[in-house]
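[retry 2/3] TonB C-terminal domain-containing protein: previous attempt timed out, resubmitting with same input.
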Amino acid sequence: MYFVVPSLIACMPSLPEGATIQYFPTPKFNQLTDVEESEGEVRAVVTISGKGKIISISSVQIMPQNLPVEPVLAALREARFLMLYGLKINDTEIVLPFDIDKIEPIPIDIPKLDIDVDGI
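[retry 2/3] TonB C-terminal domain-containing protein: success.
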């Protein structure tokens, strides 16, 4: 997840002029996702509203290529940008890095019940 600190703006990923990333959640992948890398990257053509929300996404490329697309798209839809003067940006390419986190299953211990159905 990215929260922008002003001193880090120069180090931020490729963004269109007039836009600063404010929030980009880490995509959550199924524990069965077979990938060795710990970091990924999404490259997409987007339209960003004057309020900083992505309103359209196209030409999505994800690295590594064997990652499922839907978790990355869900994170991209939640991304927020700080827009200079409420400027709307149409069909521009962005490149955002992300950590590859896998959702770990929560173990549930359900006790076995001994019910005598013959005595009912």
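[retry 2/3] TonB C-terminal domain-containing protein: Residues 51 and 86 are 6 Å apart (CA to CA).
[retry 2/3] clearing retry counter.
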